[in-house]
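Hi,

I'm pasting everything inline rather than attaching a file, because the server keeps stripping attachments. The sequence lines come first, and each chain or strand is labelled.
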Amino acid sequence: MSSWVRRRFHAAYERLLRREISGAPTHVAVIQDGNRRYADRQGADAPDGHRAGAQTTERVLDWCKDMGVEELTLYAFSTENFDRPDHEREALFDLLEEKLYEFGDDDRVHDGEVRIRVIGDEGMLPDRVREAVAYAERRTADYEEFTLNVALAYGGRNELLSAARDVARDVESGDLAAEEIDVAEIERRLYDDSLRDVDLIIRTGGDERTSNFLPWHANGNEAAVFFCTPYWPEFSKVDFLRAVRTYESREESWRRTKVERALALVKAVGGVELDEARGVIEKFRDKLPEGTSVEELEAEETAE
Ligand code: FPP
Ligand code: MG
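And the predicted assembly:
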């Protein structure tokens, strides 16, 4: 295919995907994988791959804002990444430092009221990166329009472990009763200001795993997951739209299942459950997939 034809094809496909997508996920989390393989394929070094990846990151931030996403979380440096060779690790810290200062000063960030915050074990990061983190966070602290979380020195299990230790300490000291431990208690201990539940995880680079990323907020919410093969630097708008479409169709099938279950419950039981089931039906009445109605589902249910 010539590059002109390919471009036209991509533009048409992008339009088609846009039409198919009716509502965006609120919180998207991205595992930006494949930077070194991309660099290797170009005969370049790992740091060049990370720099190329950072350009994709900026594009994705724009796409998210355009699409109505409200929160984006980027896996930028895991606790395992500390084991990378010195030259790569230091170059990555240089890049992250540079980007955090850039974001902190960027007109697009201020015009779009993007709040930047870092999640992870900041104490493990070099001072220069921590200073850049503090700068970006301070300059954007009052914004609420969009949240950009950058996961640095991040490990999902570590995060859960420290919340568990914190809870145990409070129970031991008598400040908290074991029966009082609930979702809100754990969330309060995970971050000063809580993250939204994750609706969609995207992973590039071909590996189909979620690598200890946001276990509480993504797995707890049964986030939709979109794995794709392009390396992060070549992740395109079309790939992004396909990811959003995956989320959309999962949501639609979920809504349908919930209504179907509620209808079955209405028929089978009475009392409290009946009220609850009717509540579910009312809640989803306007949100069913196009061309489906509660009455139609009810008829299907009765016919079974
Ligand atoms: C994984 O690819 C990528 C990383 C470890 C670094 C991700 C960081 C960026 C893209 C920098 C931009 C971030 C911000 C916040 C601006 P890999 O190195 O594992 O590549 P491979 O899978 O091909 O080995
Ligand atoms: Mg990798």
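The chain has two domains: 7-249, 254-303.

If the labels don't parse on your end, tell me and I'll reformat.
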